């Protein structure tokens, strides 16, 4: 019945009722948690602030450098008559709840077919971090499967070496970059982006960073463990690419 | 009629609490299955038909809120309820109630978990199954769920007593 969609109406009503109440309870829970968190971590906040300020300066420099590279890239594309890269049309949405059973890595968002969301739409966190894909659409809500779910498969490339592979979710723990040939040179810290192959996800969305490599020379392929760039355990406001 | 409405709202409220509260307190997706605990209590303390209907309500609501194919949790919950109902006949003396209740919770948690994985395999025949990585599920999630379920059985028990009083239903024990 799930596959045919006969339950969609009932599910839409269930989500309308449950997410409104649970989001209010969640806010109360978050306030309580934040109060106690500040009390216990106030000493670390000053140190963390200094580190973050330095990070902001480094990222500002990187942003400026990338802006310059982007302008150069666009000029070159124009010169070569390439199709202009389209800017994504994004719908901001709010995450209302996670799967309470823990068997899947899915979230419910407060936008559905009435808002123009369609199945298999890509979902990102600002600014361009891949979060997942819309798997079920109801009238006012949608279900998003995160990239950490084992059912998620993403065509990926490593930014520096351009090594191509497949990202598979590891049940919320991390991501596994598989099917990398042994001659590809990758190292911890390398950024992993979507390759755009298979047209499942737009290209050049940041997936994460290589944290560890599992390479056995006797095997055909090597694997790498990827830490997701988006904080998938603390999602609140995300975007659906229309 | 009043009894069924109260039972439905009780299960719905418990599921909403499970989704909202445990998400805030950093347990992430590891939370006790409060709906399952309520069903265990109905299996142990209530009559067959009331427990069965509450199990069906709980299973359907779990199916709606999870990303798994509909019907998977409904079947798992019903089978868990039926097993518990059959087994409870062996543990009826008052002196054994606390230990046997914890035993029921542990048994139901493990059984529900295993049944979910097995029924997912059956759903493969209809191309409706989800992909699971069994190792983190069996060696991390299951033990954590078991511990959380046992810890939260008594708060849910008092919740059950409140629901029972409101519904004004007949209790077996």
List the helices and strands and how they pair.
The complex is a heterodimer of chains A (242) and B (173).
Chain A: H1 8-79, E1 90-98, E2 106-109, E3 122-125, E4 129-137, E5 142-146, E6 153-158, E7 164-169, E8 175-181, E9 191-194, E10 206-214, E11 221-228, E12 237-241
Antiparallel strand pairs in A: 1-2, 1-12, 2-5, 3-4, 3-12, 4-5, 6-7, 6-9, 7-8, 8-11, 9-10, 10-11
Chain B: H1 2-24, H2 34-45, H3 48-65, H4 72-87, H5 97-123, H6 134-167
Helix pairs in contact in B: 1-3, 1-6, 2-3, 2-4, 2-5, 2-6, 3-4, 4-5, 5-6
Account of the 3D structure:
The complex is a heterodimer of chains A (242) and B (173). Chain A has one helix spanning 8-79; strands spanning 90-98, 106-109, 122-125, 129-137, 142-146, 153-158, 164-169, 175-181, 191-194, 206-214, 221-228, 237-241. Chain A is α+β, with helices and mostly antiparallel strands. The mean pLDDT of chain A is 83. Chain B is mainly α and 173 residues long. In chain B, helix 2 (34-45) packs antiparallel against helix 3 (48-65), helix 2 (34-45) crosses helix 5 and helix 4 packs antiparallel against helix 5. The mean pLDDT of chain B is 85. The A-B interface holds A 1-3, 7, 10-11, 14-15, 17-18, 21-26, 28-30, 32-33, 97-106, 108, 135-136, 143, 145, 149-151, 170-173, 233 and B 12, 15-26, 28-31, 33, 61-71, 73, 116, 128, 130-133, 136-137, 141, 145.
Biggest beta-sheet profile of chain A: 6 strands, antiparallel, barrel
Number of strands of chain B: 0
SSE order of chain A, as H and E? HEEEEEEEEEEEE
Helix content of chain A: 25-40%
Structural class of chain A: alpha+beta
Q: In terms of per-residue confidence, which ranges of chain B show pLDDT below 50 for 5 or more consecutive residues? A: none
Q: Write down how many β-strands of chain A occur, each being a DSSP E stretch of 2 or more residues.
A: 12
Give the overall shape of chain B, derived from the CA principal axes: globular
Strand order of the largest sheet of chain A: 1-2-5-4-3-12
Round the mean pLDDT of chain B to the nearest integer and report it.
85
Q: Which radius of gyration of chain A do the C-alpha atoms yield?
A: 20 Å
Strand percentage of chain A lies at 25-35%
How many DSSP helices of chain B? 6
